[in-house]
Amino acid sequence: MSETVINVENLSKRYVIGHQRAPTEGIRHVIESALHAPFKWFRSRREVKKQEKEEFWALKDVSFKVERGEVVGLIGRNGAGKSTILKLLSRITEPTTGSIYMEGRMASLLEVGTGFHPELTGRENIFLNGAILGMPKEEIVRKFDEIVAFSEIEKFLDTPVKRYSSGMYVRLAFSVAAHLDPDILIVDEVLAVGDASFQSKCMAKMQEARSQARTVLFVSHNLKAVESFCSRGIVLEKGRVTFNGPVKEALQHYAASLKIECPPAFADVIDLSNSVRRPGKYQPQLKRLRLLDSNGNPFPGTVSAGSGLKAVIEVELLKPSQQVDAELAFFTPTGERVCTAHSAYEPDRNTGLLSGRQIFTCDIPQLPLVPGEYNLHVGLDVALCEIDCVHDVARITVTSADYYGTGVMPSQGTFLLKNRWKINEAVATETKRS
Predict the structure, then answer these.
(1) Is 149 helix (H, G, I), strand (E, B) or coil?
(2) The domain that contains 225 carries what CATH number?
(3) 0.70 exceeded by the pTM?
(4) What strands, in cross-sheet order, belong to the sheet with 240-246?
(5) Pick from 260, 292, 308: which residue ends a domain?
(6) Which residues of 352-364 are buried (b: 16+ CB within 10 A; e: fewer)?
(7) Is residue 251 a contact partner of residue 227, using CB atoms and an 8 Å limit?
(8) How many domains does the chain have?
(9) Which domain holds residue 185?
(10) Alpha-carbon distances, residue 390 vs 14, 44, 239, 306 (angstroms)
(11) Which of 56, 175, 270, 304 is buried deepest, with most CB atoms within 10 A?
(12) Same domain, 246 and 285
């Protein structure tokens, strides 16, 4: 008989967004207006205050149940409400309306560094974070060596975590959470920060949790991982549940919704300043994207497999910064990252101090993608930390071409791999027995 360990009923979360108003009035003008027509001035002040605030419902009437031992994937576009649900379940924030019932010991791995004190060392933060997650000191001491070995940060154990990279943060945070042996494990997209080998270790650890009948809530844009790891999928759209069922059907529903909400009609020049596809936590520093074909002409939206593509990205830095990099990433229509062109891979890049408006030009001589549709994503990093990004800025189509000079093209996979084959006649030899 199944046992419900998570029961969410009519959950809603409202945020009040403040809008900064331009300082158009000086103090002298304010005083004169207040003295000349005080009632009119007070009415105008109330109206301005109303305009400066706006309500935003991150979640609206969300309900679902999770049974013991289930592995459930939360699927949806950026801003759909996935992370908000996890924060509510993790008790980081309170719901506006609705109720949450949870049974058992819970561990959550959400934003990088949550529960860490930057001035404390890795060793000290293991004890601090473990205590926050509900581990007695005796249990932390008993599992300390396992936690450190799993995190692979032995060399930096006595270094303040403020000097850790985001990848090191994730290693340590996941290791502590995983060794809590929770009944419920909540994992957000942060695993994408770690390298491939560490991600494999994390997935293996979560598979182990599943085999021990523990409950896992999993958020990832890696839909292959969701499909292979989860038994059920919950699709969120604009703060509401649009599908709740078997994971394969959930992924099909999500893919269909992406086709409906595809990027706008293609344009070779795209204004990024006020894009609605920018996560709300970022200030707009990406200003414009211009796409060109291999001859330097405006990109028409389609490109033959193996042909060139050039991207010109304009940015406006809010403050002088070093190690500034831009990226152009290619995604499948279902949200899986295919490949990334990143200026950090350029050996001759400028790592000095940059300020104000900058222009990054990315030249891809040959685009080795299998024919199909791909979404473009633009990002801006400082010291390899993302400070701005815009998702799904454009959808391009790669068409068939005689890439290999044989008239034959692959129908599966993602990349067109350059390769050469030879066939030699086999020479039969017979070994004589002595």
Answers:
(1) helix
(2) 3.40.50.300
(3) no
(4) 106-109, 184-187, 215-219, 71-75, 232-237, 240-246
(5) 260
(6) eebeeebebebeb
(7) yes
(8) 2
(9) 59-260
(10) 24, 36, 20, 26
(11) 175
(12) no
Whether 218 and 287 map to the same domain: the answer is: no
For residue range 53-92, list pLDDT tens digits in order: 567 788 889 999 999 888 899 988 777 888 888 888 888 8
DSSP 360-404: EEEEES---B-SEEEEEEEEEEETTEEEEEEEEEEEEEEEP--TT
- Which residues make Cβ contacts (< 8 Å) with residue 361, sequence separation at least 6? 310, 311, 312, 313
Domain edge (last residue) among 260, 285, 311: 260
The number of beta carbons lying within 10 Å of the beta carbon of residue 373 is 14
Q: Which residues pair with 126 in a beta bridge?
A: none
Q: Are the CB atoms for 229 and 185 separated by under 8 Å?
A: no
Structure tokens at 134: 């509900």
Query: Do 281 and 389 touch, CB atoms closer than 8 A?
Result: no
Q: Is residue 420 part of a domain?
A: no
What is the phi/psi pair of residue 118, to 5°? -60, -25
Report the alpha-carbon distance of residue 248 to residue 156 in Å, rounded: 42
Query: One-letter amino acid identity for 376?
Result: L
Beta strand 309-321 pairing with 286-293: antiparallel
Residue pair 222/64 in contact by the 8 Å Cβ criterion: no
Q: Are 350 and 290 in contact (CB under 8 A)?
A: no
